[in-house]
Amino acid sequence: MTTAVPRTRRGPRASLWTLRTLAGLGALGVLVQPVLAGGYLADEFDYLRLHEATAHALTLIVLLQVLAAAVYWLAGRGQVLPLPLSVLQWLLIGF
User: What is the pTM of this model?
Assistant: First the structure.
């Protein structure tokens, strides 16, 4: 006779994946910015609008990352370290 053991939730899942996704998008945005700036400096003036739009999107993504880190820490019972690092990243990109 076998007994079924109920599955227990062992930690934050949705908040952690949200935080990971936003951090990945933020890293991608940071990597794209120099390429777009270089395109503008190479006399391709359309890259300037893309550079600006990416900067605005990056600011929003990192702000959402700060909120996701706070939810991960408070509601998801995760570690506190992503929150100050996300705030630092937000300050460094020029909120």
Answer: 0.82
For residue 93, the number of C-alpha atoms closer than 13 Å in the C-beta half-sphere is 25
DSSP the chain: ---PPPP---S-SHHHHHHHHHHHHHHHHHHHHHHHHHHHHTT-THHHHHHHHHHHHHHHHHHHHHHHHHHHHHTS---STHHHHHHHHHHHTT-
Q: pLDDT tens digits, residue range 2-12?
A: 777 777 666 66
Place of tokens 């100050």: 84
Q: What is the identity of the amino acid at 23?
A: A
SS3 label, residue 11: coil
